[in-house]
Amino acid sequence: MLIVEPSDELVLxxxxxxxxxxxxxxxxxxxxxxxxxxxxxxxxxLFFVRPNVGLVKPEERITxxxxxxxxxxxxxxxxxxxxxxxADATDPIGDLHEFWKNISPSTIxxxxxxxxxxxxxxxxxxxxxxxxxxxxxxxxxKDNTDSMTLNLIDKVHVLEEDRLHLIQQVETITKQKxxxxxxxxxxxxxxxxNGFWIFMATVAVVLAALIGGWVAKKFM
Length: 220
Fold this sequence. Notes:
Layout: E1 3-5, E2 9-13, E3 20-27, E4 35-41, E5 47-50, E6 53-56, E7 61-68, E8 81-88, H1 96-102, E9 109-118, H2 121-133, H3 136-219
Parallel strand pairs: 2-9
Antiparallel strand pairs: 1-3, 3-7, 4-6, 4-8, 5-7, 8-9
GO molecular function: FFAT motif binding
InterPro entries: Ig-like_fold, MSP_dom, PapD-like_sf, VAP
Main location: membrane
């Protein structure tokens, strides 16, 4: 239903004492259908995903940002995975979170991504050199910068989700207005038809009265 890159394994390169990011590309190959998606992870405390839900238009390509929070070495003791879920979104959707709560599981397509964490030896040497030569002040500044970056990205994606929500609301209202216009046009057409037959009946009555009067005057 969706083409996801990478398709099997997401490689995240350290060091992981700072924020690390990676992008997932998602493509909708359909020429007609919109697709709703949701990206889930087995370790939400570790991974920051934006956007984690959304809509992909026909033949549209979008990017999902994956961030790894700065954490300790115990991350290597666990296997981390992502699961991409997708479903047809042919009808207007007011709230994507409600859409995923109410959708039938049988209509959901999914694919899984394994996570590989790579912390190279060179990164470790660079970290050691930095610790010995510069001290903790630079690391503190880098951590603060990473935290600010994450907060800004989070705000940007929240605004993007709000924008998508507003677009969905506009589509819903537009569809309702179109349906109301069609219904009004049908009512007006029906009224015109009724008015025509009423007019014809009135003409027939008047003609009958005139003919009756003429006949009465002629033969009486």
